[in-house]
Amino acid sequence: MENLIALLIAAPLVGAALLLCGGKRLDRTGHWIGTLLAVASFAVAAVLFTDMLGRATDDRALHQHLFTWIPVGGFHADIAFQLDQLSMTFVLLITGVGSLIHLYSVGYMAHDERRRRFFGYLNLFLAAMLLLVLADNYLLLYVGWEGVGLASYLLIGFWQHKPSAATAAKKAFLVNRVGDVGLSIAIMLLFTTFGTFAFAPVLDAAGTAGSAGEGKVTAIALMLLLAACGKSAQVPLQSWLGDAMEGPTPVSALIHAATMVTAGVYLITRSGALFDAAPAAQTAVVAVGAVTLLFGAIVGCAKDDIKKALAGSTMSQIGYMIMAAGLGPIGYAFAIMHLVTHGFFKAGLFLGAGSVMHGMNDEVDMRRYGGLRKHMPVTFITFGLGYLAIIGFPGLSGFFSKDKIIEAAFAKGGTEGLILGGAALLGAAITAFYMTRVMLMTFFGEKRWDPDEVHPHESPKTMTIPMIVLAFGSVFAGGLFSINEAFVHWLEPVTSLAHGHPPFGATVTTAATVVVLLIGVATAWLMYGRRPVPATAPRGSVLTRAARRDLLQDDFNHVVLVRGGTHLTDTLVRLDHTLVDGAVTGTAVTMGGLSGLLRRLQNGFVRSYAAQMVGGAAVLVAVTLLMRGV
Amino acid sequence: MNPVTDIHTLWTTAAEAPGRIPAPHIEYAQLSPTLIVFGAAIIGVLVEAFLPRRHRHTVQLLLAVLALAAGFAAVVGLAAGGFATTKAHLAAMGALAVDGPALFLQGTILLVSLVAVFTFAERRLDPASHGKRVDSFAAQAAAVPGGAAEQAAVKAGFTTSEVFPILLFAVGGMLIFPAANDLLTLFVALEVFSLPLYILCALARRQRLLSQEAALKYFLLGAFSSAFLLFGIALLYGYAGTVTYAGIAEVIADGTKQIDPALAGTMGNDALLLIGGALVLMGLLFKVGAVPFHMWTPDVYQGAPTPVTGFMAAATKVAAFGALLRLLYVVLPGMRWDWRPVMWGVAIVTMLGGAIVAITQTDIKRLLAYSSIAHAGFILAGVLATTQDGISSVLFYLAAYSFVTLGAFAVVTLVRDAGGEATQLSKWAGLGRRSPLVAAVFAVFLLAFAGIPLTSGFAGKFAVFKAAAQSGAGWLVVIGVLSSAIAAFFYIRVIVLMFFNEPKADGPSVAVPSPLTTTAIALGVVVTLVLGLAPQYFLDLAGQAGTFVR
């Protein structure tokens, strides 16, 4: 059975190779080949999942050793896979949502002349993402990590004729590079500390205190956190995600909402033992998560671009997951659970947004929407279910997963627990506000578009079917997972589980969550439902304006990093010109001058040559005698 | 003892009536390489005397080629017979060594000379004079330059076909030089190959005054250095009471055992050893062209006919380094802590001096002369390792370097304008555009000089530097590498000049040579690349040949 693991990755990888190298003859069938291979991968995943369920709890992990990659003395790197419950969850999410989005893209990209290439990139992404979650060691994980980064870059910049898309791709690549450097440093530290890359020995050793020293483990954990911040768009490396919405909407749904951006959560959860051994790093993780969940939510409130509003929301929701993962064994399982439910409803929301854009001539400004529920009923219903799920409406997926995270945050205990729990509750309120705002501005109220120019219409079946399937997930997944805490127990062998002790009962937390949810929805309705939405954005308060500019993150980066970096570069260039070049040309000039001087000794007169020889002989003799004397 | 008695003793012992002079025992077969070459040289003289002028060139060329090839075959035969390793011994009453280094160096010298003979015999480069093809050598060496006699000789189509026997005599001396096992044989061999070289230097067909000036300078300075060498030999004899290498080495190692009554006052006096050793070394350093005894090199290299320059630069260097190796490794190993520091100094100033002064040269032959000085420094670094690896790396370097040098000078003979060879560097601008093949070949040689990987220059330089570093002279290697960097500048500059500069309107043209020069150049390229790409076989060969017989 374990021999099937490689097949999971091989299917989309073959697809990518076929589509990217196959040339024009695949233009007409390429998208179906890509979709088919994604579905094939999902089928293999389903087989493996059934098989896994059939085995005893502690016998569920599978290993496959393909070959030894780099055998150099003590440095040993394997191409080997590990499929345990955590990986299985991701594999199902990736291949499942991935297959749906492939299908959706068949309709969405129908008129794009580079469709074959688009599907090639999508397959490449699937292969890299599966490699990331299936690797049994950090080095191979890094390969997948870079692979998804590449696919993300290629897909954000897919419409490279638009300067904004090209710039966004470059920005995503550069910001991610910062995180990637963190990961590579972490891997080097891991190797020097533990002498291996493989998960099992590293995590076992990390658990036994004293084997590595807390300082080193903390350093490793912080570098892993930096990597997670880059890939998962967490503060301070969050700035690329909003711009990444320049990519085609299926890309935003698959890569920048459901899967790739959650890789940071995977990394932290996978490395749980390392973080458990480094409390300082864990504090940093929860701080990053809490800040980001508020940051993303605030940004989401101010955006008029539907995709950017959703991007802010993604940032915020991943903040929840990161925070949960930072809580340790009381949070890991809930982080992953929220990750999965979020994968369903956020992908659904993005696909819905794509469907709206599809019907609105690619308009993204919500101030030019309005009253669309009558024109695109399927989109409205599926989007609406996703909306209810994300705000945590009781009974839907988001309610179960988010509620647990809030509970776990309070359970952290002490002031820290109160701060985290408070932040999570506040975040829930803001989430309800901005998602209601998106909902109202898009589907309700007066139409703010010109009926002569725009003819809103429902999308084709290839697009609506995936939306419907995802809507089912948004509604039911959380509830199913929570029956007898099934999901948590399923993951328990991998992530370990501890029950926290919240300062007040679960019912209080749930009640509070529902109350803040209602406050958020009501505020949004007061502002956007009761009175008409202006077609052009009002000036707004200072906070609104700052939030529209992503809370000035780009300005900060520009002033501090870009300008500072440019200044540093300028200085270095000047130093290079004066000092380095000066030294080099100075040496050359000196040598030339010396050469000119020495040349004069060669004056052509035998008498002076002979004199020099006598001098040389005298020195030779004198030094020889002197050496004996000394 | 008073001085009067001293002198009396000297007179009486020296004047003692000899008994029967014993006939020396000579191993003719083992000395066959040398004997073949000398024999052919003598036949060559007879050919000059008895053969009609029109046949001489052909016959002399054939004779020289045959003699050198036969000599090389004899060397190979001796080596195959084990004389390089197990049967190595001293021949001719201890005067000559037949051992690995001697045979390796003799083989190299013979091959190099064979290739040099091809360039000597080249008759298609100079335009035909009065309907007769001419080579690089003066029509009549004795005629005053520019005088009526010279014009008559040119008109008559004379050529100096004596160059072939003269060359063979020089080669014979060079074969003895690295094999010489006593100081007197060393000196005789030095003179035997130096005198023919002085003559060869004076024989240029064009720019005869420059050529004669070069020869005279070479002769004067050569005689001067010979005097130092001879004086050093005398002092060493005074110290050890013998001129054989083994004898001197024994005295150095064990102290004096038997005092020769005639030398009682001097034997075992270390001052004599140190001064004598230094002076003998100086004589050899002059021949290899090490700073500060290098002054003759640029002037002579520039003035001599280019084929002679190539021959000298390649073969003389091999012979002289061979002799230096034997002297340092057989005679003076016991006092290596006396001569190593000063020789390190010589190696450093030679590497740096050659490389630095080469930067500002404007004449290609002078540039190559300074390059050869720098290379002498690199080889010295290997010599001074005083290890087995030192010997074999130097042997390899010499073989590699001599073919590159010959090839480079052969290319120089091809680039010509109305005044003969165009050796002004500025005239070489854009040569790569006009004659890409010739420029590319020259570039290969320059890269080999610079020690760029995949050429023999890299393998050789790596070997000597490795040997030097392993002997504990890491700092010497650092200086060597820095010098290489400086040297790379002027080698690459020529490449840039040839390929990336616009050709001049009145620039030189490349003459089409006969198969002789083509062969010489092609062999140079092949050896350069083979030794660069697959040096291991030859390194092993040099390694096997790396033991001196004592």
Automatic annotation (TrEMBL), chain A:
Residues 135-420 form the NADH:quinone oxidoreductase/Mrp antiporter transmembrane domain. The chain crosses the membrane at residues 33-54, 89-106, 118-135, 141-160, 181-203, 215-237, 249-268, 280-302, 318-337, 380-400, 420-444, 465-484, 504-528, 609-627. The keyword Metal-binding does not apply. InterPro entries: NADHpl_OxRdtase_5_subgr, ND/Mrp_TM, NU5C-like, Proton_antipo_N. This is NADH-quinone oxidoreductase subunit L. It is found in: Endomembrane system; Membrane. It is a multi-pass membrane protein. Its main location: membrane. It comes from the Bacteria. It comes from Streptomyces catenulae. PANTHER family: NADH-UBIQUINONE OXIDOREDUCTASE CHAIN 5 (PTHR42829:SF2). It holds the Pfam family Proton_antipo_N. Keywords: Membrane, Transmembrane, Transmembrane helix. The keyword Hydrolase does not apply. Residues 69-119 form the NADH-Ubiquinone oxidoreductase (complex I) chain 5 N-terminal domain.
Automatic annotation (TrEMBL), chain B:
It is a multi-pass membrane protein. Its main location: membrane. Signal peptide: none annotated. Pfam families: Proton_antipo_M. It is found in: Cell membrane; Endomembrane system; Membrane. Residues 180-486 form the NADH:quinone oxidoreductase/Mrp antiporter transmembrane domain. The keyword ATP-binding does not apply. It comes from the Bacteria. The chain crosses the membrane at residues 28-49, 61-83, 103-121, 163-180, 186-204, 216-240, 271-296, 308-329, 341-360, 367-388, 394-415, 436-455, 475-500, 512-534. It catalyses: a quinone + NADH + 5 H(+)(in) = a quinol + NAD(+) + 4 H(+)(out). Belongs to the complex I subunit 2 family. NDH-1 is composed of 14 different subunits. Subunits NuoA, H, J, K, L, M, N constitute the membrane sector of the complex. This is NADH-quinone oxidoreductase subunit N. It comes from Streptomyces catenulae.
